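User: Structure with coenzyme A, tokens only please.
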Amino acid sequence: MSEVSKGLSGIVVGDTAISTVGKAGVGLTYRGYDIHDLSEYTQFEEVAYLLIYGKLPNKIELAAYLKKLQTLRELPHNLKSVLEKIPQNTHPMDVLRTGISMLGTLEPETTGYTSAAIANRLLAITPGILLYWYHFQKQQNRIEIQTDEIYLANHFLHLLTGHTPKKEFAKTMNVSLILYAEHEFNASTFAARITTSTLADFYSAIVSGIGTLRGPLHGGANEAAMALISQFKTPLAAAQGVKKMLENKEKIMGFGHRVYRSCDPRSDVIKNYSQQLSKEAIDGDLFLISEQIEKIMRDEKNLFPNLDFYSATAYHFCGIPTDFFTPIFVMARLAGWSAHILEQRSDNRLIRPDANYIGLTPQAFIPLEQRI
Ligand code: COA
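Assistant:
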């Protein structure tokens, strides 16, 4: 029997030039650039360009890229028809999984349609997929997908509300898209790389990523964190409630990490935005409740908040419905997944690990009529 690392913890399964996560002295970097600089000084589209094309765009390249993404937002007619048939109570992650899969049948990956072009198309179209379905199911309203917004963060909020977003909401969205854009060999990225390693098409790899991101131990944690935080009316109730959950050995969503040991460098960045927004929000106390939960988790378990925890209230204060939180993660991580699909293709070998067999010893075959 070989020694097993459950969950592949600590196992190095490949090389990457895309990002560093939790490496001593470096922190979180995308292609060598610190996440703090990127989140403070750039637009998400610059980061997407950096991840997909390997360098930060100059002014001319960025202007052309922004223009290109704007032209790629429209939904094909047949995709709209499929979105209109998806039931109202469907989780928006399933809408994205279905919508992107449908797009793959309408605009399949062919020799004339490069992988970077598909990556850009997906970045540009995904807000429209989600919000076309949302408005149609809510009010039978077939919304216009094009807005005059240049940036994806603004475009998403505009499609959600029907008007130009407040500056501070758009800024929060932009920063959050940057923080969520890439994170090395996390579960969904690894799933996308596994699919890519079989020489499957780009859309199949992305759909693998979406399915893997959905669970609450991964991307679904931001929605689960909101459900946790919003069940408490006061910080005191939160302290008592979380202590009880820990006594019952329940997991507190939005805390802990497989790679980071003492903090998630993205958490304080988004926490700051959540705090600023809480000052103007009618239910701004949710921020104080979150801080109380953070304190209890440190005191009781020595665990720290990950990016998902304060993203929950940051999004909530921007007026975003809770079940859109993980889909927003998709909109951002499309950039990282795409970079990894391209990297896997550039030096591919089928990903196929081994397993120890722990099943029955060899058995004499029993014919059907003799089985009990
Ligand atoms: N709440 C309570 N306890 C937690 C915890 C949490 N959020 N995260 C880890 N722990 C505890 C586990 O119960 C376990 O304790 P034990 O050894 O006494 O059984 C120990 O810490 C190790 O946890 P484990 O789940 O084995 O670590 P992992 O490396 O496999 O998992 C996560 C990492 C992220 C899956 C885990 O921390 C988690 O489930 N967090 C909540 C979900 C979440 O926020 N996911 C988003 C990640 S960015």
